[in-house]
Amino acid sequence: MDTSETSPPRQRFDALVVGAGFGGLQALHHLRAHGLATRLVEAAPALGGTWWWNKYPGARVDIESLEYSYGFDEEIQQAWRWSERYSPRKDVRAYLEFVADRLDLRRDMQFDTRIETAAWDDARRLWTLTAHSGERFEARCVFFALGFLSEGFIPEIPGRERFRGTLVHTSRWPEDLDLTDKRVGCVGVGATGVQFVPEAARIAGHLHVFQRSPNWCLPQRNEPMRPEYERFVKDNYAEIRRQEHEQRGAGHVLFNYEITPSSARSPLDCTPEEREAIYRHFWKNGAIHISRGFFGLTTDKAANDTLRDFWERQIRETVQDPETADKLIPDFPPLTRRPCGEYGYYAAFNRDNVSLVDCKADPIAEIVPEGVKLESGRAIELDVLAFATGFDAGAGALRRIAVTGREGLSLDDRWAEGVRTFLGLMSDGFPNMFVLGGAQSPAAHFSPPLLVVYQTQLALRLIEATDAARGGAVEPARAAVEDWTREVAAVMDKTLIAGSQSWWMSANVPGKPRQPVAYAGGFAAYRDRAERSLAEGAQDWTLARDPAEAS
Prior knowledge:
The chain is of the alpha/beta class and 551 residues long. The chain has 16 helices and 22 strands. Helix 1 (22-33) links the parallel strand 1 and strand 2 (38-41). Residues 1-5 have low confidence and may be disordered.
């Protein structure tokens, strides 16, 4: 049967970028600058990636705005002005819109295009990607920039379809959903829930917070941007960016309005008075940076216990009801799950219109038409039920696409026992497929806007090497993939995080193989391993000869 008249025509490019967040925008820019004919496609109706989808009240960055930004273009760094120290979602989106306009990216961007399948043709050395509309794209290389935290997860609770009110995951928040005077339920108290609760508490008639496991939350001390501070940072961006890539930590070096190095001192080497003063200094001036105040907090249980003692006291000083404070204190060591930046979270539980529901003592049994029913039989009537239950982190969004590599190998089959990559960038059996800010990269532990730029430049160097060798495709060697997967696990095994029930260890999604979702050895070590792989060449990478060249 001839389907040529009914099948949509295929559009052909050198590279196709999937996703229009921080990863995708810079990839489009750098690939075009490299001379590659590139198209970017995005499922949403506008750019922004996770910052377009996450419209829930309270959404904002937990890295300072001046650092949660691109560093590759000095004109952009100097021209853009942030309104707050920690930017709300709308400002991050406005920044990305500004970048797209400044770099003239829109002419090669296509929205409302959700990719459903991606298949490699080994004979033609091409990827064919098909969108939900049936539109097809062919490209020599594909760059998936889908976001590390973009595939929302809702736990299986019976009765969701029966709820008569509004049920929503926070990552798909409707712009017209108004909580004013509503009876609101929030399920989950991770980073999103911690941001959502104080905002919802201000306007809801009553807010029930359904908590199974509390989190350690840190005050972020947000405020309007100080002009003199912004000027200081812009005058010193070169040094700041250098240190972000070199220092131990998550790729941010600004603390208390200064460039501040991470400490190499253990809290156990201090007197109790010195230790208390240092902890209080960080708590007062931006506690999200508290892990940089001492060395060893995630590797030494005794050192971590000093932080736990201090942190517990801060919670009890804020939360007025002792019983509620007890329930808000976690039973796991601080910093072994993602610490949550808070803007009035603990104080929200002092309000008369906020109730904490301890779901460890009395779990949710089912969702009923009127609201939520607990195992005890207690029923809580709700108008809105918001699931702030996090994400299938790392590879969740990519695995929603049916990806097929060499010889019909599916990505699901290759990763049946867990994600397997080299540098979090590529997987064997899937030539010319690059993943930006994905699983087994440092994405969960390092600044995404900085990481994706390096990964794109690394990918371009691999493409150059392939072209120089007259190759049609590049992929990592199986041994390099297995070695890297072991290295990611080995680094995490040296920390207290390895024993946690955190999404950092893939523990939040039932059935997901337990493994670290990201490399925790720091960006400098990651970069060194990547550079060594390029120097070693054939040991880590396989270049496939283009059939046209071979003939």
